[in-house]
Amino acid sequence: MTISLVLNQGDASESRIYYCAHYLAESLGLFASHGLKVIFTTAESGGKTVQGGQVPAVIAGEADLTIGGPMVMMKNYQENGPALVCFAAAVSANPWFLAAGKADNNFTLGSLRGKRVIDVGNVGTATLSFNWLLRQHHLEKEVELIAGSGDEAADFAAISRGDAEYALHSVHALAPFMARGELHTVASLAPFCGDIPWSAYIARRDVMAEKQAAFSAFTAAMREAQQWLQSHSAEALAAQVQPWYPDYPSAALVTGLEAYLKTNVFAASPLMRREDFDRFVVLLTEAGWLTPAIPVPFAALVDVSFAAGVHP
User: Fold this and answer.
1) Residue 102 shares a structural domain with residue 245
2) CB of 11 closer than 8 Å to CB of 46
3) How far apart are CA 269 and CA 171, in angstroms?
4) Is residue 309 assigned to a domain?
5) In terms of domains, do 84 and 135 share one?
6) Lower CB density within 10 Å: C or N end of the chain?
7) Which CATH number covers residue 122?
């Protein structure tokens, strides 16, 4: 007997290559091997809060689970919103990079002093994290951070022309330009921010209890996919997930996946670590996203029982 889960991935723009692990699990037949059928759906629009994007589908019961940022669950908890929890890690480091028109093997954060950075993606978590990083290194008054225009190609062209020195974006967006030699990454933000649960699989507790066998199967399949990720090349990974990115250039896919593998962006297992969660809480509190006076407890927002193999 096959059991099923509906996974809402958000709008089309959110199907980024650092979310490829569930596609890998599907491609390798891992869900099927656990007797599970995963139905992939999308949302009509994106969103940075529980009122937008894919989360309403989970709250309403239209989807069983989604993938997204624990930062939204943290804010939701502080605002007494609907109860949602993270049950499996997906992205365990900051997937944003700094890129320039020319390669720079000697780049340090100090290289940003007096420079202009275009925040091409204008994505909340990335912007907050970058501003936090600047403050940590006393660079907040030394760097001009320019909001992206909404036209990625135009912003990247501005970097090539020298209108600004650096672009801030995910490798998902940068890789096509990198593969053509138009942009060069100079730094990953992952090592500067440390291990943090950037993205996770999220669901309602009551749905997980009702469909315990399906969530156990999903998590087991994801564990196997994540293990596969750690032992294979970017080329091998790209070959498996390319069908899920039909309009994404194959050379760019390899380039982007290789960058993420090298910087340990993909979670190595579904188990989210408390110390990583707490580190992210501190970062987001210092960044101004979370209210310092309201604690954000790990146990309230993370259910490790599936990842720890508590359920059969």
Assistant:
1) no
2) yes
3) 22
4) no
5) no
6) N
7) 3.40.190.10
As given in the structure block, the two tokens for residue 14 are 């959110």
Interval 194-210: pLDDT, tens: 999 999 999 999 999 99
pLDDT exceeds cutoff 90 at 53: no
Q: What are the structure tokens assigned to 39, written together? A: 């139905």
**72 and 209, same domain (yes or no):** yes
Quote the tokens at residue 143.
């760097």
- Whose structure tokens read 């579904």? 270
- 170: exposed, middle or buried (C-beta count within 10 Å: 0-12, 13-18, 19+)? buried
pTM, two decimal places: 0.92
The conformation of residue 6, written as its DSSP 8-state character, comes to E
- Domain extent at residue 88: 3-93+196-301
Give the containing element (helix H, strand E) for 251.
helix 250-262
**Domain final position from 168, 193, 218:** 193
Rounded to an integer, what distance in angstroms lies between the CA atom of residue 296 and that of residue 157? 41
**Backbone φ, ψ for residue 110 (5° rounding):** -65, -20
Report the number of distinct structural domains present in the chain.
Answer: 2
C-alpha 17/C-alpha 135 separation (Å) is: 29
* Token pair 């309201």: residue: 294
Residue 93 near residue 196, CB atoms below 8 Å: yes
Angle value at C-alpha 79, between 78 and 84, nearest 5 degrees: 75
Q: Are residues 224 and 279 in the same domain?
A: yes
Nearest to 65 by CA among 38, 46, 92: 38
